[in-house]
Amino acid sequence: MSHTLENMGNLITAAIPVNLRKYSEEATLGDKIVFSIQGSGLSISHSGLIWPDLTN
Amino acid sequence: MILKGGSTILGLADYIPEQRVSTEETMSRFSHRYGISDDYLKRTTGIFEKRRSLAGQMPSDLAVNASRTALAKARLHPKDIHAIIYCGLIRDFEEPATSHIVQDKLGAKNAMCFDVTNACHGFANGIFVADTLVSAHQNIKSVLVITGEQGSRFEDQAVDLLLNEQPEKRLLRTLTAGLTLGDAGGAIIIGRKKGDTGFTGYNVASFGQFHSLCVAGSPLEQGALKTRMASLMSEAAPRVASMYREFLTKRALLCSGVTAAS
What we know:
The complex is a heterodimer of chains A (56) and B (262). Chain A is of the alpha+beta class and 56 residues long. Chain A contains 2 helices and 2 strands.
């Protein structure tokens, strides 16, 4: 789910870090997420992430 | 192809420019020429507002602002970074690679620098490359993957063409994607995986037979972003769905409790 499309538009490559940063506000350790990306060319990928401890 | 992940996120940040521009404001500049309402873009895409960089801000500035926050959150010094990968579609210059400019602005003297470009998909490629670097080389402990997008440059080009070319609906259709783009910077610091958290894997594929469906930078098109959106979506959507199913099946770790983001 994008958190940013309506109020920031298509952020091109910044969509991944901006949406993950937004998601970090509600994330808990161990959350399983998949981000789905497509780009002109055409390239498509899915990346799996188990949310890490970012509190350091 | 499905690849195994060997890395995790050490730090994460974004930089969102403060200036807001409503899509209705943008559309009002040319809507009368095409017989459409000012809320056309908002109604068809859901986008009501975008952010715009300050005058004089370069893509590297957006990336540096995000990077400084990410480094602080990860409690890392710029000299702790061993590689910088800039992944933006928009770059400061064609040469040098923008990653070098970011390195200089951050003072990340121990980093090797290069750019990865693959349209909207570039940041995902940057993460795969960073994952490979930290997994394969003991002396590479942290990689800064960054971007600084200024989609507003494509919006400006599109508006200029829509104001000055013959007002045909076909022109509006091919330029609409450029009107949806906004500005932002982002940074993710990638390090070697510890324990069970971090990147579990990737499913990656390319379909070059569709390279002509979305093109930016062609001198024949005044450099503007031109997209055959209906064709692009009809080719991409079923492939995205089948790859997603394949990924969840083969990377069984992710089969339950998944939140999808795109």
